[in-house]
Amino acid sequence: MLYSLLSLVVSLAACTAPEQARPSAADTQRMAERLQQIAHNQNPVSNIYLNDLRVEHFSSRQDLLSPLARMRARILLARERLRAGQTQASIDEFQQLRPELEKRQVRMEPSLDMLLGLAYLRLGEQVNCLEGHTTASCLFPIGPDGVHADPRGSRTALDYLATVLEQNPDDLTARWLLNIAYMTLGEYPDQVPPQWLIEPSLFASEYDIGHFPDIAPFLQLDLVSLAGGSIMDDFDNDGFLDLMISSWDLDEQLRYFRNQGDGTFSERTQEAGLTGITGGLQLVHADFDNDSYLDFLAVRGAWQGIDGQHPNSLVRNQGDGTFADVTEAAGLLSFHPTQTAAWADVDSDGRLDLFVGNETFPGLNDVHPGELFHNQGDGTFVEKAAALGLAVEGFVKGATWGDFDNDGQIDLYVSRLMGDNFLFRNQGAGRPLADVAGRAGVKRPHESFPTWFWDFDNDGWLDLFASGYHYNPDLNAGDVAADYLGVPTDAERARLFRNRGNGTFADVSQIHHLHKVLYTMGCNYVDLDNDGWLDLYVGTGAPSLRSVMPNRMFRNAGGQVFQDITASGGFGHLQKGHGVAVGDLDNDGDQDIYAVIGGAYTGDTFQNVLFENPGHGNRWITLLLEGTRANRSAIGARVELQVETAAGTRSIHRMVSSGASFGASSLQQEIGLGQATAIREIAVLWPGEDAVQRFADVPLDQAYRVRQGEAALIPLVRKSVSLAPERDAQGHHSPAHN
Fold first, then answer.
1. What is the dihedral of CA 696, 699, 703, 709, to 10 degrees?
2. Neighbour tally for 472: CB within 10 Å
């Protein structure tokens, strides 16, 4: 009895967050004013992504130039209009320029015909897919429901793309775009000239996963935005997952949508005190202060070099439905171009630390090393990257934590675009982390972007995925076409590394069918069919408007091979895919997917999507882990389930994290069990501990809280709801939404 009482006292003490000064609205206001000032002072001459401002700037200087310089400026202006979404004005400018360009025999790259073909294709998208949006718009391969009602844009694009191909039959980008244009007209494949046809069999799914409908329009979650981040998790602890959504545009408000628990969502941005917190290419979340409420970090400035020296925002959940920006008070205020950040407890003290990966362009003196913010436990952090060997330099694009060698210490993998990647082994005892990427065999791909640790083969050792990204605006869609066609390409490919269990990894990308050209940006892993094997979804693209390529979904077939199921599931969005968040929004036991869709240029906007899981009849369990001695979010905890099936006992392994490095999934573990007949045991290994917490003979298809140190699971009452209940049987918009 005395032991039980002492354990309870220790548990309660660990669960109580240290007393902190409550942030005020003034903290958020100061950050909002800072962001507004930075946005106001952006330089359209040096920043190639400020296309609306660049149009204004270059338009105002036309009269100051010589005739030849004016012609070059008009070319630049026409391209900026296209990027700004002023497509018809861009077309008009290019058409007016044609006689002078031909007279002077000016050669352009890309050619004028390619630019006009692209502009007309984009015009067709704007008219039919943005203004006349349906959930079939831009889903590749485009079927009857996605055919353009107004064919003029794509019809005209065909003429220009055909001209490009007549001049250069090997131009795979033009060939790819031409096939897509025919799809939008409902004339693919029959009307495509045979010499330019890309056979439909190349896009066929290798497994029929069943259609995942996009229900974002019915929930008013189809926000039209640029590239950005997303979080799916329970911010108000009511048992339903909410959504936090950002755009990298510093003039665009971060938005918070509360899950109402009845199948609908309500925007609570203003009520939550988030007004003025703008921008954010990526969002990552965790309970950094161990108060049982999830906080988040928004990172800014990526891709913009010297113009991207923006502050990140640490936003604290105050537990009463409101949030406050505590960046400055917490000691996190710094100014760097940032794409990625990741939470983990580096020193196993029960408090989450934060790695921030910053971008240093190769060859420039403007250096932005990585940062490691050590959690002091009082709401503040101290930067210790140099002391811990983590002040990495380079164009950092992804970061992920995981204990790859099962020694109880969390390790860090960092991916870079244009440079070797790092695998930092945690040596414990406050010593610097050591880069072992070379010895481990995971320095490649040389051009990397998103990455994550996961156990794709359920053997108890964390494997690693790092996707390639070949930043070449002239080739990216052509590279994807080449990959489908089996034509050689220099584009970087994705890497799947299998953990050998001896400190090294084997590149198994080819034998598992993931050695593909993916141009991955947003991404995450997911168990689509609750079979206990983790699948993966990649949002694809590049800033160039020519990078019209499908987002891709791959099903893990028993840990043996990954099957392309993009078409059968309806996942192949042709617009650019960014932050991908996964979770069980309707508490029905399977995982849904929210993705931010949109590009970098100011006119490259599109509607976000929410793919609802139709269900696959498999068993499941949801585990919400709560650390007491470990960090409250349980980030880094390992879970092993032993389940009974008709074929015998199998193991399923998971690690608590928000998933991949571009998109933030629910921290609760939503675990598919396939056709399991019983759960024989659940074993949990908490960060920083050697002892394993075990639970025997757990019922299936339930949700539980797993509290560190407690002998029994705590059942959670989770009401299952129907998402978007107002939609009709055909899935049409409600009159109010139209």
1. -20
2. 15
Continuous segment of H or E residues that includes residue 711: none
Question: Which pair of structure tokens corresponds to residue 256?
Answer: 């918070």
Cβ pair 689, 228 in contact under 8 A? no
Of residues 502, 506, 513, the one with CA closest to residue 535: 513
What is the residue whose two structure tokens read 């992504």? 49
d(CA 622, CA 723): 19
pLDDT of residue 58: 87
Give the distance, in angstroms, between the CA of residue 79 and the centroid of all CA atoms in the same chain: 28
Q: Which two tokens stand for residue 388?
A: 């811990």
- Neighbouring C-alpha atoms within 13 Å toward the C-beta of 17: 23
Is the CA virtual torsion 593, 599, 602, 607 positive or negative?
A: negative
Cis peptide before 141 (omega within 30 of 0): yes
Beta bridge partners of 282: 299
Task: Give me 567's structure tokens.
Answer: 């078409």
**Phi/psi at 177 (nearest 5 deg)?**
-65, -35
Give residue for tokens 């599931």.
Answer: 569
Structure tokens at 360: 């240093």
pLDDT of residue 608: 98
Helix axes 51-59, 67-83, angle to 10 degrees: 160
At residue 73, the pLDDT reads 87
Task: Indicate whether this model's pTM tops 0.90.
Answer: yes
Q: Which residue has the higher pLDDT, 430 or 698?
A: 698
- 292 touches 628 (CB < 8 A): no
Contacts of residue 405, Cβ cutoff 8 Å, sequence gap at least 6: 411, 425, 503
472 compared with 672, residue with greater pLDDT: 672
446 exposure class (CB count in 10 Å sphere: 0-12, 13-18, 19+): middle
Dist. CA 112–CA 100, nearest whole Å: 12
> Who contacts 616 (Cβ-Cβ below 8 Å, separation ≥6)?
210, 528, 529, 530, 531, 590
Neighbours of 353 (CB within 10 A): 24
| Cis-peptide into 445, omega within 30 deg | yes
* 231 token code pair: 């979080």
Q: What is the DSSP string of 317-355?
A: E-SSS-EEE-HHHHT---EE-EEEEEEE-TT-SSS-EEE
Peptide bond into 23 cis (omega under 30): no
Radius of gyration of the chain (CA): 25
Rounded Cα gap, residues 375 and 349, in angstroms = 9
- The answer to whether the CB of 476 falls within 8 A of the CB of 445 is no
Query: Rounded mean pLDDT of 265-280?
Result: 98
Please give the Cα distance from 22 to 236 (Å, whole number): 18
| SS3 track for 238-297 | CCCCEEEECCCCCCCECEEEEECCCCCEEECCCCCCCCCCECCCEEEEECCCCCCCCEEE
